[in-house]
Structure formats: C-alpha cells, structure tokens
Amino acid sequence: MSSSAPQHPRPAGGHRLWSVDEHLADVLATVRPLEPIELQLLDAQGCVLVEDVTVPVALPPFDNSSMDGYAVRTADVQGASEEFPAVLTVIGDVAAGSGELPTVGPGEAARIMTGAPLPPGAEAVVPVEWTDGGTGGGAASGMTPASAAPEGSGGEVRVHRPAEARAHVRSRGSDVQAGDLALAAGTVLGPPQIALLAAIGRGTVRVRPRPRVVVLSTGSELVQPGETLASGTIYDSNSFALAAAARDAGAIAYRVGAVEDDADTLRATIEDQLIRADLLVTTGGVSVGAYDVVKEALTSVAGGEDDVDGGKIDFRKLAMQPGKPQGFGTIGPDHTPLLALPGNPVSSYVSFELFVRPAIRALMGLPEPEVGRPTVRAVLKADKALGSPAGRRQFLRGKYDAQSGTVSPVGGSGSHLIAALAHADSLMVVPEEVTSVEPGSELEVVLLG
User: Fold this and answer.
1) What does pTM read for this prediction?
2) DSSP string, 236-266
3) pLDDT at 308
C-alpha cells in the first residue's frame, strides 16, 4: 500500500541547520494518507472515516418506554394517590422486541418493560415504584419476573400517582431523525461512534486504515528486557517506548527490537520489514560516530541519491535540543516513509512526538491542525531560571497544572534521563532566540497526555 509519492531530491541536509518547523513541514509534505478500505465495525475502531454517514431510519425507531412500569391513559390515573389509588385492569405484557401489541382502553393498563414499544391507546408510562406491582399490597420495588409468575400480566394494578402525557416515553426520532448526519468524514471512530454506527444499522464503514508502523532500535550494546546484562550492555527501552507511542498515536505497531551495529544486517532487516510497513522508524546510529551504521545502511537500501524510484534518505542536523541528528526520506519501490531518530532515550521520544506522531496522524488522513499534540501557554514555576542554548529550540520535560496554569520542570536537560521522562506529562518549549527563562515567565507547553 503506497503511502507517499515520489519526491524530487531534497537539498542535502548535512550542510545546513534545519529548523524544527522545516523538518516537520518536509515530513508532512511527503507523507500521503493511506488509501481507504471497507472494514467491519470493530476492525474500524481508531480509524478515520472517509465519508459522511447519514441516518437511514429514525433513532429510536418507535415510541418506547424509558422505565419498567405500566402503560396507561392519563385520564385513568388523574388524581391518583396512595390513599385513593387508580385501579386498572392489566391486559398483558409488552416486552422489548414485542411484535403484536395490545391496545390499552379506558380503565386498562399494560405491563411494559424498558425499551419496549408504547402500545396503542397508551399515553404515558407510570414506573412500577408508583404502583403496587399488581400484588394488592403497598408500593412495589420491582416486577415479578414473567417466567416465575406469568399470571402477573393479568389482574389489577393500583397506581398511586398521576402521570402527564408522554411521561417516561422516549419519542421516535428523539435521538436522531432519518436523513440526519450521523458522523462526518474525518471523524476518528472510537467506542461511542462505533455504537452509533451499529445503532443505525451499519455493519461496515469506509475508512483509512490504521497505519502499520515498524520500529527498529540499533546498537550492539542493547539487550532485551528479561535477559541478563553483560558488561557494557544496557536494556533496549527505545523500541518499547516508540512502539507504545505509535499505538497511542493510532497505529498498528510492530517492534522488531535491537539490531546490531552491522550495516548489512540492518539493511537486510529493513528490506524484510518493508512488506508490512506504511512507516518505518529507526532509533540510534544517526550521529557522526564510527559505529553509527544507520546512515550507511539506509543510503544503500534507499538506492542512492540518484535513484529517485527507490527513494532517498536525507540525514540532517536540526536546531533543537534534544534531538539534533535526524534522518528522513522514503525507501523501497512503494516509497515507504522512514524517520531515523537519535538513540538517546529522551531525544528519541521527543523526536517521535514532534515528527513521527504527526506522520502517523497524516497517514490516517487527519488534517494538519490535528496531527500534533495540543499546546497551551503556562507560567513557569521553578526555583531558578532555565538555561537554553542560543539558536536551538529546547524541549524540557515538565509537569503541567491545568488548574493553576503553571508548569514545573521535571529532571534535568540531559538526553539520557529517561526516569524523569516517565514522570513528565508535557514538554516545555524554549524558543531559539531565548537563552534564559525566569520563573513566572510564560512558556508554550506541549501536552503529552
């Protein structure tokens, strides 16, 4: 499934510093929404609707009871009280799903269950708690089950309170009318939307599918959680973090895990994964070290700079902290988008939120204003000023308090401090031209939750 179109070769990214906005614009200009498909309702959960859905029949399709009780004529219960109850003849039961309905005449009532259609002649429903339940005693707390006492559908019922016309009746079309717009194109289908589609009789719906995102981490030092650490090794957290983040963004995530620092192995792994990827995300190996083999592997698998049909990966430096080294382009015959992120855990996660999440949301077909995280303005609450390098847009972990409109720093600025990231719910944004932010200053805050 092709998700992007062939691109004209980009200017080489290694010879200039890209801004965050330029890099994001390049990503969003390259990524194309996935082609729509028809899916069963539950399979469409989390997907974006590509067509307006109108209501074929009114909902509810008939007048029905909102209570368990008795369907009555209002004149028959006018002035009813506990001292002088209205005594009515019970002519039968009306259960949810009932077909042929009894007609309620003067001095009559029908036992009716919640959701059951209002029978002809009835004008209101009195809850069972307003009656003796047909027992001849005091106020009832419920009805005797029909299976245990079929005779309960006959006899007499004493009604202790009057009811106005249409009391406890849900009118036909009170939810939606036939011809109304149920859901507009562009709607993300969550549980309430799935419920509405089912309620109006839609078994399938046309949507853009959830993007398939393959996540690979690189590094010979990485060990999978649950295994024993040897000297000089660390646990692979990036692939778990990014796969979870991809799911949170609405994608179907495939975590490949750690690939050793060998260009041929990495190249073969990427080529194997192309068949199931709408988007590839790598982490690590994009800097300038002697063992940063991602550049070599991705340049080769992309087909080289002149092979436009095979795509091209551009490695560039961004004016941001953390996350300066980045790679982006398309690879393979279907021009599958690939984002190569730094290997430091915080750099990797911040880069995901800024660039990969918008790419996933764009693949889903969401409009550009909705692809990123929401942002707010908040006042810095801190013991001292926050420093930031000149010419870099810095993203610091924070804790946002919506009630007070303040944000507080969490942990330091190091790109390896993953424990602090786990306790943060936002990113504080320090603009490129700002080198110090005093307590009490207002900041832009990216909300992560």
Assistant:
1) 0.80
2) --HHHHHHHHHHHTT-EEEEEEEE-S-HHHH
3) 37
